[in-house]
Amino acid sequence: MKKVVNQKYSIAQQCLISIVLVFVVSVACFFSSKYVDYRITALVLLMTVSFVAMLFDILPVLLTAVLSGLILNYFFIEPIFTFHITDTEDVLLFLMYLIIALVNAVLTFKIREAENKARDKEEKVKTIQLYDTLLNSLSHELKTPIATIVGAIDVLKENRNKLSETNQSELLEEIDKASIRLNTQVENLLNMSRLETGMLKLKLDWCDINELIYAVIQKNSPEKLKHNIVFVPNDKLPLFKLDGGLIEEVIQNLVTNAIQYTPEDTIISIDVKLESDCCIISVLDTGNGFPESEIQYAFDKFYRLPSTKTGGSGLGLSIVKGFVEAHNGTVELKSNPNRSGACFVINIPVKTSYINHLKNE
After folding, report:
1. What is the pLDDT of residues 318-359, one digit of tens each?
2. Which of 267, 262, 244 lies closest to 323, judged by CA?
3. Strand ordering across the sheet containing 342-349
4. Could you tell me which residues come within 8 angstroms of residue 252 by beta carbon, excluding any fewer than 6 positions away?
């Protein structure tokens, strides 16, 4: 929380907020002075200093400590409206207040520094672990299709005259599949890099969502022989203002995920509708689904269900989440209603336009 506040406000703004806060508390205590002893007021002001110390940098906190001490002296310790203190006990109270307030400010700052260092160290360890996971994944996910391509090309080069047309076609098909797999992994890595570095910029334009879904189905046409991809277009839908390329990637990753981790002959259904100015896209399958305990981790980077078959780097769903959130939308994984399998529901607030309206824009 402190880190967010520091990023949001400059030192000057923090000092101004601290001063205003001290004056507000002091005014409230001053008008309550008939009912509240000034020693209680000292505790209230000290609590205010502690609160500021939890949020702001050291300079505003020290300023708050000194200012609150002076206010305590001038407005609450007899004789009021003067910095002169006649009673020895009050002198001791004032000095102890300043010392405690300043020590509290410094100690809080030091504790927070130590926490930040520990947090940074923990984040570095997590980053190293993530990169180790990524490298381990890449060693398989990139090496396998490359080896397939190189091996198939070598066989074609060395045995071109000996291979039948059927065998040559099979090898070319293996090269094609491996190339698509390799391209998908590279695209996922590039997309994740764009998300993490903040380089992702939306290119909003009017899109026919039915056409985007058909494009995804066409890309996966070879897999339709093993999986049944079902989509009934909704011709009543308007045009949506979206980044068509990113939304196509989102749907593609969800379909690829379903193909990758469900048995053959699984039905993969895609549905799209408009509700309350939101584009709602659902991708359902009749596979084995996600255990309830694992749903919360589904969109984490490099996450894959335990005991699933190899394949994929675990980036697909995290990219889906990033692209959808870039559109100020949400994506949710639910149990497939009325049957087994998984159900991904995307909800994106959109501007809409029917063709007649669009022509007038």
Report:
1. 888 888 888 889 999 886 655 678 889 999 999 988 764 444
2. 244
3. 228-231, 267-275, 278-285, 342-349, 330-335
4. 216, 219, 220
Distance CA 196, CA 188 (A): 12
Helix (H, G, I), strand (E, B) or coil at 311: coil
27: left (phi over 0), alpha (psi -120 to 50) or beta: alpha
Q: Residue 253 belongs to what H/E stretch? A: helix 244-261
Q: Find where tokens 């996910």 sit.
A: 141
Q: How far are the Cα atoms of 183, 275, 311 from residue 304, in angstroms, in the given order?
A: 20, 32, 10
109 vs 240: CA distance, rounded Å: 50
pLDDT for 6 beyond 90: no
Contact 277, 340 (CB under 8 A): no
Nearest C-alpha neighbor of 210 from the set 239, 181, 188, 187: 239
Output the pTM of the full model. 0.53
pLDDT, averaged across the chain: 80
The pair of structure tokens assigned to 52 is 């500021």
DSSP code per residue over 316-348: HHHHHHHHHHHTT-EEEEEEPTTSSSEEEEEEE
pLDDT tens by residue, 122-178: 877 766 765 665 566 566 567 777 888 888 888 888 877 778 888 888 888 888 877
